Structure formats: C-alpha cells, structure tokens
C-alpha cells in the first residue's frame, strides 16, 4: 500500500530528525563514535599507525539545521511546482501513463514527488556515461540538458577526468596486459557465453578451474562462482536459512543481502552498525526468548555482516563477531564484496586483515566486480556447504553460467594477486592501495573535512550533509577534471549526503595530490570543512 | 483538644469508626502493597538465561543428506558450448543449451567481444549510477527498444535478476498479481520479493483467470476505497520455458481493459525465436506492443550473451533506473557482453529473412519426429524451440537421467530440465531439448534416434 510506504518514510524522516537533537544523549552510535581496536595480530597490519581507527564525527549543529532547512525549501518548492503543474500553469514534463484512465496509478505519490522535484534537479550527477576503461583515468561522455535535466543530449564531446569513483581497488580495470590478453584468448577458445545453467549443460572447465583457484586463495575447502555478485547474495541466502530461523543483520547491509534475507522467509532482526554489544544483546535475547508468539527455539541463527561497508568506509570487527558466534553457536555469513583483494596484507579480505582463520567464518562471500576488475560473485566454505549450495542454489539451477572471458579475467588477476604468476606485481598493488588509502584519508582529515570510516579502508566517504552540495561538489570537481561519486537519500540517511572516494592501486601520488588540491579548493568554496576536531597525532 | 474533633465524629457510634478505620487501612494496603504481576513471577533469572543459552542447540547449517552426483558434478564442457561441444574429450551434438540461433562461438561476435576488451577492459567496476554506464550499454538499450519498436529499454547484468527485480519495482505490498501457474522460477521469486498478494490461475486457462478477476471485482465492490489504491498486474510468459507452449495473449489483452490490470510479459524464450522476425509473441499474435506494459527478456538464450532486459514505454521502464534493485545495486554488464549482444542483434536484423522461418521449420520437424517415437510424449506447441519430452508410462527423473547418460555416451548432449524443490507448482520431470536453427535434417534424426534407442536401452 502506498500509504504504508509513506508512513514508513515519514517514520524514517522522523528518526532522522531525532538524531540531531542536541539534547538527546541517547544518540545512535553511528554518530560521534570513535573506537580503538587492536587487531589480533598487529604485526600483520602494514599501517603506519599500529592502531585501527574508525571515526564517525558528529555533524555540527548548524550544518544539521541548514540541511533540514534545505530539505524544507526543496519540499516547499516541490509543492509549489506540483501545484503549478496541476493547475496547468507549468508544462508537465516526464512520461505519461499510456493506459486509458481508470487504471490504479502505477507509482505512489511520494515516490513521484521525490523523483520529480528532488532527484531530477541533480540527475546529471548520476549515470554519467563513459567511453573508456574505468581505470585511474576515464573519458566521460558529455551530456547537456536544455530542459533542466528532464532529458539529456550527448554533445559529442568527451571529458577526460581522474577517476575517484570506480571500484577498481587493485587497478585490474585494464585494456592491456596479461589479464586482458588472457581474456581475449578465452573468447577465442570458448566464446562469450554458455547459454545453459551449470546444473544442466553450462559447467565448463574454466569454471572448475576458477572455483579451485578461489578456494585455494581463500584457504578453504571449496568454492562456487556465479555470474552476478548481487544474485550471489539474493539467490543463495535462501538456501541456508528458512522459516523458523533468525537472521541478525547489520543495519547498513547491502540491499542484495536484505533481499536474500527476505526471500529466505527467515525472521530478520537488525542490529546497530558494527555494534558488538547490540549484537550480543540481540543474540542472547533471541536464544533466551525464542521465536515471537510461539516461543519455540530458533532453528538456526545466522549473523550477516559485510567486510568493508561501502557507504561508511568502516571495517567489520570480525574477531569479536567470531567470538560471539562461537559463544552463542550462531553461524556467520561474511560479505567481502568491497574487502576481498582490497584489504589485508595478502589481499584476502577482512579475514586476512584481522589475522582470523577463514574456517571460523561459515560462509565467505565476495564479488569479482571490484578488486578483480571482472564480474560475478563467489561463495566459499566447507565442501559440504558448497555441495549444498550447488544442489539448491537458484542461480546454479536456473541462471546461465559465467561467461568464459569473465572467468578468465578473475583467474588471471587472482594469480597476479597471490603471486602464483611468479611476480611481485600483486604485492605491489596491494601495498600501493594501502598507501594511497592512508595518504588520501590523512590529508583530508588534516584539511578539516569530516571523513567517515576506518583508516585502512580504501573507501573514503567525505560528508556533505546538505542536499544542494551534492550536485555542487560533483560539478565543481568535474570542472577540475576529477570524477567523483556523490550520494544522498535514499542510499544514505536523509541528512548524511556524502562524497564517496574509492581509491585504487593505479592512482599515483601525483594524481592524488591533484585531487586533494581540487578537493581543498572546492571544500573551501562550499564550506565543507565541518570538522571541529583537532587533528590527532598530526 | 477534644474540641477540635467535630461533632459528627463524637456522635458516631464506635463500630462505625472502627469500620471506617479498617477501610482506610485497607485502601492504604491496596495502594502500597507490592502488586502481583504474573510477568514478574515468570521473569527469567540470570541463571535461567544461562541455562537456556547453554541448552540451545541449533540445527546444522547444512542438513545431512546425500548429494546427488549428477547435480554437484555435472558434465564438464571444454571449448565453446556451441552446436557441437566437447564433453570428456568427445565431440557431441548439443541439444541441451539454449543456443537457438547458434550465436555461441560465432566469429563475428567473438571479434566484437575482443575489440570491446581492447577498448574497455573486462569489468565495468561499478554500478550504472557511478561511472558504470558505458556507451555500449546505452547503445544496446536503444537497439533493444528499436527492435521491439517501443520507447525505451533497460538492461540488467543477469537474466535471472531481470524479471525478479522488475516485478517488485512496481508491485508492492497490498497490490495484486495474477500469475500463470506455469511461470518460471525467476518470476516466482520476483513475486515473492514484491510481497504482493498473488493469485495463480491454471496454466493458460483463461476461464480460470476470469474467475479470479471476477472474484476480485466482487471484493472490490465491498471495499471500493481499497480497490482504488490496489494495483493489479498480470504476469505471464510469452512462450513458457517449463511447458513449451504460447500464452493466449490476445484474450488477455482484451480482459486487460475490462479489469484494469497491467500486463508484464516475460519473453525469455520467445524473444528472437517466435514471430516472423523474432519479435516475440506480440508479433506472432499481431498484438500492438503499446498494450503490453512491460516486456522482459534475456540475452542468455537466443543472443548468446549474458544479461537481461526490459522494454516498454518510458513511463514504465524509466522507473527501474531508481527502483530496479538488480539494476541500481549491481555492477553493470561487462561491456564485452553488451557488445556481443549488439552484434547478435546485428546478425538477426541482417538475416531476418531466413533465420526465423528456418528455426520454425526445424522446430516443427523435430516436434513431428519426436511425436512418432514410441512411449514418448512431447508437450507444447510445435513451433516452440524448447521441447519437453516425457515417457508415456512411468515417467521418472531417474529414468530420464539414464536416457540422457545413454545419449551422452552416443555423443548427443541432452539434459533433464532441472527444477528446485521450491518450485511453486513443480513441473513433471522431462528431458528438455533445445532447437538450434542450424541443425541439419540428419542431425535432427540423430537426436530423435538417440532418444528412441535410449528409451529402449532402459527397457521401456
């Protein structure tokens, strides 16, 4: 029902409003939290600082107030414009339902209002087409709009820009070199697709090779690969839990995890982002009180977390979660989409980063889109688990198997990362990424920006707060030749619009310095240096 | 002192005062006693909790059962899964994969894919929103829209996630979906994800559909306010993957305007197989495409690539840019696969004169020949490029698997149709044969003969 949606939206808005109450001491721990965690094996951490720091500095009150005023203005003008459109004074743009009258409207009123009056204003910042490798530098296709972003035309020109937006962590987005040439060979040998699911006639030798290589790399018994990362989560969680089971899910989990959890039919409880105490409390209560109403004991409890959170730049506190999972006999599903390859001294994700045993994580999941410069996802774990997934996975049974050149790209990049190709290229890339992440983040903090997340994370979110600054920052940076990703509601909370920088091993120091200089300039121009903190150990 | 006491107290009899004093004490007791609460008595002590925590034993993550070898260790193909594929070192005729137009391994397509890697690399390293939109994606979207002569197209990076994302983008909790019992698994999951009320009607049974629609009409009359806010959708397949037959589209379009539902038509199988020029069932039935609200399809069958797409009016399709989960939150399709799909479309558009009548001819021929095989039933329409064949008596999965093994040993690759237990309406076990338009008459004979021999070999 649309009205239900509206209610939940209003509730969400209210929740957000509640967050900035300066007298409210019971703030969500996302704000103003700083944790200091010692990794288990500190010798493994290559950070210049031995201490892992995660910071979520609170927005200054004035910024929060102006953010709300910003949304208020947007809403008031939205209503006004809608009134003008309704009364026929302004031309209605956008597509109209081709069906005759009498059909129930296809979209809910609020959704349309948001798209029409807010999203469209800044639409040119998203879905920007490119026409090159999404590497350290990209060519953007210039789009122009002569009707305020309702439609776009390509001007025929391209804009060369430094790319701080793609998930190209280890720099494997390349159109030459070993990976590309191996993939080309794979096309010549095997074509581009199999047109059959793996259970029927789509299993190719290259898939077997990939699964073996991946399992070996992760240090587990077996693995299974799928053609799409999103579907790896959404089509496989239902094989692990069902009705009568409980999923404890981090509040900031990716939508694929949320969708998979929903499809499973299990009960979902959400715990505060990366908050071990909250997780423990919920775990304990769930076991003690059992299922709601019937009070039957839960069949299984599955904790679902991500390695690196792509919007916060935070790193999961894995050792503590493993401790909890063992203590309370729960199972652990770890999504390493943004961490595999990008984190840890050997690039083996957060498990490697914390020096944990991969066998302590029941289900290791990750994607090949990011660090490997390819496409798809994997699940790894015990032989028994993987065979179970092979049997019951939606994707394994119904979806077409992975394209051979895509699989080849992963195998080649994996061999480089693990050093199996006999070079230290992989090590170099991992070290470069780590250095870049630290350098870039440290500089931003020193400049006085509010930067979220963990010091070791290659994802660096910089807070903008105000909706109008989303476009301003994006456009100003592009003028200076830097392509960035800016995000706002609904990808983040309403008041927490931000820029998200994704660093890459292919960025050189010169590139980062150029970017930093531009950010500094735009930051001053847009009053983005909100931080009130004295820079620690500067 | 005694003067202070009012007269009425002095005059009151003693028993009166005693009763009042007692009442006063009782009221005070009622107020201040520790109230009895059943919840408190049942409250768990820390010790109880500890015991409960220790007692709880979860079920194993993976239940204990014996894995089926044919499922966890399927045949492994070396080289391309083309018309002929190499299995266990032996070249065998492929009647198992959905390579209807023989696009897999096509030189022109491979060439385009290679050129694409040379220009864009392999992966796109981002979702469509954040620098993952590459010019080939836009081109493919336009080409697909043009192919169907509609306003707009949108592509997904995975066939399965296409319709499974598209349905929940529109249909929400409280809305009603009328769906055919025969729809394939991805559609079923899309319906579950939407959390809408679903009414399944019997496969291709227009009367049953109308019965459900009338029922709903009655319910609407009782609650017109709710009816005004309840969207209705009809979700059907053009050619049913699990049945091999066509949907009665014209009748469904007629009913659309009477009962005010929107039609989502999945053309996974029928796209680029059915119709004179491969435009699907709308072309076959000559139904104007504006009457269908959304057409979805897959590039993993006829086009020999990976991914899926939706086409339709801008009003409908554009919405998925923000609301199609598999579109928004997933990395975009690798450019080489988009380039391959474009090239496949080029091939189709260049050869349309012969390709589809040819495919139709082969489908009919195979259908007819299969029909003549003893102890075998073939379901579906004769022009369907997927054929489900079943044993007339004692049709079990084990027997069908044996026939498939027999065929493989004789260098013909067949497959049983694999379904999960979770299917809403489990189809009967079958061998699913896919027709490649490039099959020669003798190759068709080979397939039929092998099946015939296979049936004999298991003693039926």
Automatic annotation (TrEMBL), chain A:
What superkingdom does the record give?
Eukaryota
Look up and give the membrane topology term.
Single-pass membrane protein
Segment Disordered: which positions? 14-34
Report the pathway entry: Lipid metabolism; sphingolipid metabolism; Sphingolipid metabolism
| Any one annotated GO CC term | endoplasmic reticulum membrane
Q: Which PROSITE patterns match?
A: AA_TRANSFER_CLASS_2
What is its cofactor?
pyridoxal 5'-phosphate
Q: Which reaction does it catalyse?
A: L-serine + hexadecanoyl-CoA + H(+) = 3-oxosphinganine + CO2 + CoA
Main localization is endoplasmic reticulum
Family affiliation: Belongs to the class-II pyridoxal-phosphate-dependent aminotransferase family.
- Protein name (Swiss-Prot/TrEMBL): serine C-palmitoyltransferase
Q: Which organism is it from?
A: Brachionus calyciflorus
The upper taxonomy is: Eukaryota, Metazoa, Spiralia, Gnathifera, Rotifera
Automatic annotation (TrEMBL), chain B:
Any single GO BP term: sphingosine biosynthetic process
Record has Translocase as a keyword = no
Instruction: List where the protein spans the membrane.
Output: 12-32
Q: Which UniProt keywords apply?
A: Acyltransferase, Lipid metabolism, Membrane, Pyridoxal phosphate, Sphingolipid metabolism, Transferase, Transmembrane, Transmembrane helix
Q: What is its EC number?
A: 2.3.1.50
Question: Which coenzymes or cofactors are required?
Answer: pyridoxal 5'-phosphate
**An example molecular function term from Gene Ontology annotations:** serine C-palmitoyltransferase activity
Q: Where is the Aminotransferase class I/classII large domain?
A: 110-449
Q: Which domain of life is it from?
A: Eukaryota
InterPro entries hit by this protein: Aminotransferase_I/II_large (IPR004839), AON_synthase_class-II (IPR050087), PyrdxlP-dep_Trfase (IPR015424), PyrdxlP-dep_Trfase_major (IPR015421)
Q: Which Pfam families match?
A: Aminotran_1_2
- In the UniProt record, which is one GO cellular component term? endoplasmic reticulum
This protein's pathway: Sphingolipid metabolism; Lipid metabolism; sphingolipid metabolism
The Swiss-Prot or TrEMBL record describes its family as follows: Belongs to the class-II pyridoxal-phosphate-dependent aminotransferase family.
Official protein name in the record: Serine palmitoyltransferase 1
């Amino acid at each position: 029902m649309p009205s239900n949606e509206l209610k939940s939206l209003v509730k969400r808005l209210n929740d957000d409003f509640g967050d900035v109450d300066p007298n409210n001491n019971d703030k969500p721990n996302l704000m103003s939290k700083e944790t200091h965690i010692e990794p288990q094996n500190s010798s493994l951490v290559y950070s210049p600082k031995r201490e892992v720091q995660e910071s979520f500095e609170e927005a200054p009150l004035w910024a929060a107030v102006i953010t709300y005023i910003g949304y208020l203005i947007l809403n008031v003008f939205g209503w006004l414009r809608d009134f003008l459109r309704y009364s026929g004074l302004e031309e209605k743009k956008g597509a109209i339902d081709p069906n005759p009258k009498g059909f129930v409207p296809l979209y809910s009123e609020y959704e349309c209002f948001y798209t029409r009056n807010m999203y469209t204003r800044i639409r040119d910042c998203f879905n920007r087409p490119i026409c090159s490798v999404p590497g350290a530098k990209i060519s953007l296709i210039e789009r122009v709009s002569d009707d305020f972003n309702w439609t776009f035309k390509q001007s025929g020109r391209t804009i060369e820009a430094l790319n701080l937006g793609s998930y190209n962590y280890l720099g494997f987005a390349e159109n030459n070199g070993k990976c590309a040439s191996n993939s080309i060979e794979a096309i010549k040998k095997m074509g581009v697709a199999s047109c059959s699911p793996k259970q029927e006639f789509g299993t190719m030798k290259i898939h077997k090779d990939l699964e073996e290589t991946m399992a070996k790399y992760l240090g587990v018994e077996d693995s299974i690969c799928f053609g799409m990362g999103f579907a790896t989560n959404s089509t496989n969680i239902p094989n692990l839990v069902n009705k009568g089971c409980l999923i404890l899910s981090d509040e900031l989990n990716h939508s694929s995890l949320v969708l998979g959890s929903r499809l499973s039919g299990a009960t979902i409880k959400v715990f505060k982002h990366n908050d071990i105490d909250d997780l423990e409390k919920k775990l304990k209560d769930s076991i003690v009180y059992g299922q709601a109403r019937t009070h039957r004991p839960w069949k299984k409890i599955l904790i679902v977390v991500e390695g690196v959170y792509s919007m916060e730049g935070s790193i999961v506190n894995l050792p503590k979660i493993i401790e909890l999972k063992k203590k309370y006999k729960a199972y652990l599903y770890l999504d390493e989409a943004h961490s595999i390859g990008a984190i840890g001294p050997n690039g083996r994700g957060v498990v490697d980063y914390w020096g944990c045993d991969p066998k302590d994580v029941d289900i290791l999941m990750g994607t090949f889109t990011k660090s490997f410069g390819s496409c798809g996802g994997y699940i790894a774990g015990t032989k028994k688990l993987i065979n179970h997934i092979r049997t019951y996975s939606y994707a394994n049974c119904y979806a077409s198997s992975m394209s051979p050149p895509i699989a080849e790209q992963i195998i080649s990049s994996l061999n480089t990362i693990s050093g199996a190709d006999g070079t230290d290229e992989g090590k170099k890339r991992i070290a470069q990424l780590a250095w870049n992440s630290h350098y870039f983040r440290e500089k931003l903090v020193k400049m006085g920006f509010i930067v979220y997340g963990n010091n070791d994370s290659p994802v660096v979110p910089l807070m903008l707060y105000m909706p109008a600054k989303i476009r301003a920052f994006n456009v100003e940076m592009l003028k200076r030749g830097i392509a960035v990703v800016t995000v706002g509601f609904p990808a983040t909370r309403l008041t927490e619009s931000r820029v998200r920088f994704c660093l890459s091993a292919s960025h050189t120091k010169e590139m980062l310095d150029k970017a930093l200089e531009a950010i500094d300039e735009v930051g001053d121009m847009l009053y983005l240096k909100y931080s009130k903190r004295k820079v620690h150990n500067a | 002192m005694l003067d202070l006491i009012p007269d009425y107290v002095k005059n009151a009899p003693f028993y009166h005062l005693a009763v009042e004093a007692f009442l006063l004490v009782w009221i005070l007791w009622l107020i201040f006693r520790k109230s009895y609460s059943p919840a408190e008595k049942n409250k768990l002590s820390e010790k109880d909790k500890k015991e409960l925590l220790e007692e709880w034993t979860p079920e194993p993550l993976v239940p204990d059962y014996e894995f089926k070898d044919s499922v966890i260790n399927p045949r492994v193909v070396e080289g391309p899964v083309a018309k002929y594929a190499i299995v266990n070192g032996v070249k065998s005729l492929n009647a198992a994969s959905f390579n209807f137009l023989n696009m897999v391994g096509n030189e022109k397509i491979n060439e385009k894919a290679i050129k694409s890697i040379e220009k864009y690399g392999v992966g796109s390293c981002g979702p469509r929103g954040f620098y993952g939109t590459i010019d080939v994606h836009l081109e493919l979207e336009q080409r697909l829209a043009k192919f169907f002569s509609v306003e707009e197209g949108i592509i997904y990076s995975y066939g399965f996630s296409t319709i499974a994302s598209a349905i929940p983008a529109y249909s929400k909790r409280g809305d009603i979906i009328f769906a055919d019992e025969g729809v394939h698994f991805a559609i079923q999951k899309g319906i579950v994800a939407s959390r809408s009320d679903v009414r399944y009607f019997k496969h291709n049974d227009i009367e049953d559909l109308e019965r459900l629609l009338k029922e709903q009409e009655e319910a609407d009359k009782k609650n017109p306010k709710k009816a005004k806010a309840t969207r209705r959708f009809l979700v059907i397949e053009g050619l049913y993957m699990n049945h091999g037959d066509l949907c009665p589209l014209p009748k469904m379009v007629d009913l659309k305007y009477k009962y005010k539902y929107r039609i989502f038509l999945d053309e996974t199988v029928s796209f680029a197989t059915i119709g004179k020029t491969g435009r699907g069932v709308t072309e076959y039935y000559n139904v104007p495409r504006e009457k269908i609200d959304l057409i979805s399809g897959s590039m993993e069958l006829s086009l020999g690539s990976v991914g899926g797409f939706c086409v339709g009016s801008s009003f409908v399709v554009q919405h998925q840019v923000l609301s199609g989960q598999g579109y928004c939150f997933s990395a975009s399709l690798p450019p080489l696969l988009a380039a391959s799909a474009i090239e496949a479309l080029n091939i189709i558009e260049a050869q349309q004169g012969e390709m589809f009548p040819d495919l139709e001819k082969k489908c009919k021929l195979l259908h007819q020949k299969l029909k003549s095989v003893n102890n075998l039933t073939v379901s579906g329409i004769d022009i369907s490029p997927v054929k489900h064949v079943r044993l007339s008596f004692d049709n079990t999965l084990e027997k069908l698997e044996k026939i498939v093994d027999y065929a493989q040993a004789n260098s013909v690759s067949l497959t049983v149709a694999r379904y999960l237990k979770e299917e809403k309406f489990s189809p009967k076990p079958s061998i699913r044969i896919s027709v490649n338009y490039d099959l020669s008459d003798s190759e068709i004979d080979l397939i039929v003969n092998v099946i015939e021999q296979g049936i004999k070999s298991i003693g039926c």
